[in-house]
Design brief:
Blueprint lengths: L2 H7 L13 H11 L11 E6 L2 H10 L4 H5 L2 E8 H8 L2 H23 L3 E5 L4 H8 L5 E10 L13 H4 L6
Helix pairs in contact: 2-6, 3-7, 5-6
Length: 172
């Protein structure tokens, strides 16, 4: 799949078939995530992969009972490592680590789409509950829960935007 097709064709998938997602496929998605840009090449992000039904159910509760978190074969929680970035960039390091995690999440979703998998980036969750469920160290901030599985739906494309309303050229 070429990049433009991947960008245009990817959708948020919230319904998945019962087919499992092999561990090696998930590993390849995480390798793709690690190709994302990173401030200072620090790669200030970590990934927690949940496949246990009990763990996914608990994460679903943290995500305000969003069902796709519980039913997906795999959930990846992407975390920013603000301490890692902070050592080099001070207070600004927290922003950079969140950007690093977001870029990695985007690459993960595009790689999933390329393999025929579906995924959904979920940012609406209670950070404290998610942190407790995963027993995260203080240095990590959960930034996204990504449900992954074989799609059992085909959402319509989102309506396009008028680019003249959102792009501002500053010339001079």
């Amino acid at each position: 799949m070429n990049l433009k097709d991947a960008l245009k064709g990817r959708r948020s998938i919230r319904r998945y078939s019962d087919c499992p997602v092999e561990r090696d496929l998930v590993a390849s998605l995480l390798e793709a995530a690690e190709t994302a840009p990173s401030a200072g090449n620090l790669r200030a992000r970590e990934y927690f992969v949940a496949t246990s039904p009990d763990l996914k159910a608990a994460l679903s509760v943290a995500a305000y009972s969003q069902d796709h978190i519980a039913i997906a074969p795999v959930v990846v929680v992407v975390c920013a490592d603000s301490v890692r970035s902070g050592r080099r960039y001070g207070d600004r390091g927290q922003v950079y680590s969140i950007q690093d995690a977001a870029a990695a999440t985007t690459c993960l979703l595009l790689a999933a789409h390329d393999l025929g998998l579906g995924g959904c980036w979920t940012g609406a969750f209670d950070e404290t509950i998610a942190r407790d469920i995963l027993a995260l160290p203080d240095r990590l901030v959960p930034t996204a829960m990504v449900s992954i599985g074989w799609p059992d739906e085909r959402p319509a494309p989102s309506p396009g935007r008028d680019m003249t309303e959102v792009v501002h050229w500053i010339e001079g």
